[in-house]
Every structure is written in structure tokens, then in C-alpha cells.
Amino acid sequence: MQSNKLGEVVAFVRMGQQVYRAYNPTPYDPKTKKQLICRAKFKVVNDLAIAFSPVSAIGLASVKKQGQLNHNVFFSVNYDTVTGTTPENLTVDFPNIVIAKGKALGVAFGEPVVVDNTLTIPFTPGTGYNANGSDEVYVMAYCEDKREYALRLALRAAESVHIPIPSNFTGKVHLYGFVRSSYAGYDEATDIKIYNKGECSDSDYIGFIV
Fold it and tell me: How many other CB atoms sit within 10 Å of the CB of residue 12?
């Protein structure tokens, strides 16, 4: 857990839980432009954290500190993906959102294809010492308009992930992928363990569909 200032956010511990709140350097004037932007940004990031937290609970497990809530992990990693000069024009940099971090061997995702309302994402499984066919490849489809997601996984050996597109999805749907290892990873030259079973790879932004 941490208790310090992270840019425009203050981290502290309350009743054993990690908590984040907007930093206010001038509490006597809570309606300054900077503070209003900070509050609006805080709400946007927090809403994203809540929406993404079931998936980031898997992908960001390796960077989660003891007692830290899942949505707080996402919040701290992705706070800077929301930017803007007024509370009304904040934008989310969806391609730079991180839903997984780790040392596991990733895959190379290909172009998504939609046929009969089913999204198919092919991937090249990779080769090498730690490319296990039983590793889990996750793909998340996040609907920006609905703030909802669909998640599917396949084994590394399958070379593709298939996601039925929910009927209520409209507008832009962002796609993210990562790998969760089925075995511990070892350095090929030294045979020294470099990550534990269940470690994830860094997430990739695959693209979006509309």
C-alpha cells in the first residue's frame, strides 16, 4: 500500500484499504478551474476502473499490493490516459489503457474479423522456451458507449479467440488482449525462474471495431 501524492491524486490508507482521492491544493476555493478538471478526471478514471476491474483483476494481479482493491490498481496505472483542458472536454486515450502487466510471453494479435456477429481475433502463438500451448490468451471487447465488456479466452495453441458480440453493443468497441501463463517461466540460458505460474504478459491494444 502507498500513502503519497501521485500527480493530481493523493493515495492513502483507510481502515486497511488503499484509497485514492483528487488532490486539492486550495481547499478554501473548491471551484477553481484546475480543481474542477481534476474532479471530473477523477470521476472518468474511476468509472473506467469500475468497468474494467473484473478483467484487470486478472491482468494486473502481479502489480497489485496486499490489501489493494482491484479498481484502485487500474486507477493508479491508467490515471494519465484521461486528459483535457476543461471538465467538459476530457478524453480517454483508449489505445494506451493497460489491463495487464507482467513478464509472461505474449502473442502477436492479428486483424479482427466479424462474421455473423462473432468477432474472431487471430494470433501468432510465438515460439520459445516459455511458449506453452496451454497458456490462456484473453481478449476483451469494451463497448465505449455502453461501458460494458465481453471477455473470452482460448489456449495459446488455438491461435484464435472468438467473441460473440452482445446485441446491445453500439458505436466503437475497443479490443485488448493478453496472455496468462499456465506454467512458471524460466530463462532459457540459465534456467533461472523469471516469473511464476499465473503471471500475465503486458496487454496489447488490438484495435477497435464499429
Answer: 14
Calpha distance 188→128 (Å, rounded): 8
Q: Which residues of the chain have pLDDT under 50?
A: none
HEC-encoded secondary structure of 97-123: CCCCCCCCCCCEECCCEEECCEEEEEE
Q: What is the domain partition of the chain in residue ranges?
A: 4-93, 108-209
pTM: 0.82
The CATH architecture annotation of domain 108-209 reads: Sandwich (2.60)
CB 54 within 8 A of CB 41: no
Establish how many alpha carbons lie within 13 A of residue 103's alpha carbon, considering only the half-sphere containing its beta carbon.
12
Pairing of strands 136-143, 148-155: antiparallel
Tell which phi-psi region holds residue 69, choosing left (phi > 0), alpha (psi between -120 and 50) or beta: beta
At 207, list the grid cell.
484495435
